[in-house]
Design brief:
This is Small hydrophilic plant seed protein. By secondary structure, the chain is mainly alpha-helical. Helices cover about 75% and strands about 5% of the residues. A two-stranded antiparallel sheet has the order 1-2.
């Protein structure tokens, strides 16, 4: 079972939820979609570079 990770009165889970809610209110739901696409593009690029490096060996 998960142990309670606290510092003060708020758990890590509560702090994460609070931060996510604030971000959603500030930037909107589309923000998460755009950062997800950016992350996916970066992963795709890194995979491509890794494959190219392996082919050169």
């Amino acid at each position: 079972m998960a142990r309670k990770e606290t510092k003060g009165e708020m758990t890590v889970r509560e702090a994460g939820r609070k931060g996510g809610t604030t971000t959603k209110q500030r930037y909107g739901e589309g923000y998460y979609e755009s950062i997800g696409k950016k992350g996916g593009q970066k992963v795709r690029e890194l995979i491509r570079k890794g494959k190219e490096a392996m082919e050169k060996k």
